[in-house]
Design goal:
single chain, 3 helices, Alpha-Beta Plaits, 2 domains, 6 strands, about 15% strand
Length: about 160
């Protein structure tokens, strides 16, 4: 698959796959969906037990990332939604890619990252107002000419 290329101020799109069998693996999904295993984030479900409220909690879910654009994501969802995997009808929904703020590039936030987005270990998501953004809690990418500096990000465990 081609790397995602979100437009400035927009998070990339991905596919949220739900209602999969508990024992499904990333390798299996890679073959079924014809995507690289590294583009699959699998959240295994819980084994059925009496404390679970519904059957939904006993299935696995996954996110297929690095789709080229929203239309490609829609086409993917249309093609694979309602596919049957070992007796379970899976559902594919187009969603904007979830992220944790600690995944964002702090250098890109200041307009100083020396790596292109596809080579940096962190996410490059451009702010919708890269020059004039006055939100001190905006940790998306900005240009160097931005007048305000964002406050320090929260750190896990603090």
């Amino acid at each position: 698959m081609i790397a995602a290329s979100a437009t400035p101020g927009e998070r990339p799109y991905c596919i949220h796959v739900t209602n999969m069998p508990l024992d499904v693996t990333s390798d299996e999904l890679s073959e079924i969906f014809s995507v690289h295993v590294a583009d699959i984030l699998l959240q295994p479900g819980n084994q059925s037990s009496s404390h679970l409220a519904s059957r939904d909690e006993s299935t696995s879910e996954a996110w297929i990332k690095n789709l080229p654009d929203q239309q490609s994501a829609r086409d993917f969802a249309k093609k694979y939604s309602r596919l049957i995997i070992r007796g379970s009808k899976v559902y594919c929904d187009v969603v904007q890619e979830p992220f944790n703020i600690t995944e964002l590039c702090t250098d890109f936030e200041r307009g100083d990252c020396k790596y292109p987005a596809d080579r940096c270990h962190y996410k490059h998501i451009m702010c919708s107002e890269p020059d004039e953004c006055d939100n001190s809690k905006c940790w998306f990418g900005h240009h160097r000419r931005r007048l305000i500096t964002s406050i320090r990000r929260p750190v896990e465990g603090e």
